[in-house]
Predict the structure.
Amino acid sequence: MKSGSDVLPARTEMLAQIHRHLRYAGIGFGVGGVAPLPSATAPTLADVMAESDAFGALSPEERDQLAEHFVVVRLENDEALIREGQMPEAIFLLSSGTVEVSQGEGSQRRALLHASPGDSFGMIGLITGEASTVTARAVTPVTAYRLDKEAIATVLHTRPELAASLEVQAKRGPVWLRCEMAEQDHTQLIAKPGLVLDRLRDFLHRLNA
């Protein structure tokens, strides 16, 4: 049984998740006995990027440069953005719905976490050049923005200073890539954030080669 001190943070986190999903769906909270709240406006791609861990610390101009290359993708229940064992070739930024990040299949399948709007997937695979160790699978209808590796290279060639900004992001450690740092296989990256920075620099060098 959870103690009172454990229950309160869990409830707070749950309410935060509910608010996040409603906001990204353009739905406002209703309050009993109070006049109806005005309809909320669903966040734009610029809003999602600005509020995400992966891109939020970039300047508005840098986010705008990347935003031009995002492509909208939609998935139904049980469709995957990324599959375990496959080489990621793009970053996905979730804008609506819920995605389960898991390892294994069938009876061996183990859920690591459930991601919500603003979370991203695929960055670790692009940086390390290694196959994904997780599957990111839709558990509700999902809308996400896809940014291909080639698109990142295009932006870097026109705006090389973006590389320095991405390095600043990498120095934030696990917070930068919450959904992907949950994997046990990435304990070294968690323990040594400098490894993320080294891998990122190699990745950026390969894109500019």
In short: The first strand starts at residue 71 and ends at 75.
